[in-house]
């Protein structure tokens, strides 16, 4: 009887967990980007009509808008994913499983409340992270631990009050950092590694 009860409790937990998970489909307009130096074509995904208001919202399918791709298209060739001026209060889950080679990730003007290491963990090739005009209050410790290739981070016009002191220390390629119009700091460093290092020191003082 005890074993049966234990099984029931575990099963119930799984059902509750699944019921709390939301699955959505996203529509992408794909734009090809031809690189002459490498003679290769990659693709940019610009999303349409996205709405995410609950945590743990999983993107389970991407629909192409109006046959915008070519025969050479594959999801592994998508290097940019953009959600702009839509309602995305929480980071969309599973994007990393669909687009495994993203270099640019944009969630701009979407009311995004938070960003975590778990959200970014599998974007190993990420170079440009653009999260401007959202409602992020805190940048947690080791947020970018698994994104060592980051060159640009845009957090313009959020509501940042706390940024962990060591957040940016291991990002050796970071040369552009936008932090203008935040609570604890309002500065930027553009295409200059030395200026980024100075800004990081100010963050450690002002955003404890």
UniProtKB/TrEMBL annotation:
<keyword id="KW-0732">Signal</keyword>
<dbReference type="Pfam" id="PF13855">
    <property type="entry name" value="LRR_8"/>
</dbReference>
<dbReference type="InterPro" id="IPR032675">
    <property type="entry name" value="LRR_dom_sf"/>
</dbReference>
<dbReference type="GO" id="GO:0031012">
    <property type="term" value="C:extracellular matrix"/>
</dbReference>
<feature type="signal peptide">
    <location>
        <begin position="1"/>
        <end position="19"/>
    </location>
</feature>
<dbReference type="InterPro" id="IPR001611">
    <property type="entry name" value="Leu-rich_rpt"/>
</dbReference>
<dbReference type="GO" id="GO:0005615">
    <property type="term" value="C:extracellular space"/>
</dbReference>
<protein>
    <recommendedName>
        <fullName>Leucine rich repeat protein</fullName>
    </recommendedName>
</protein>
<dbReference type="InterPro" id="IPR050328">
    <property type="entry name" value="Dev_Immune_Receptor"/>
</dbReference>
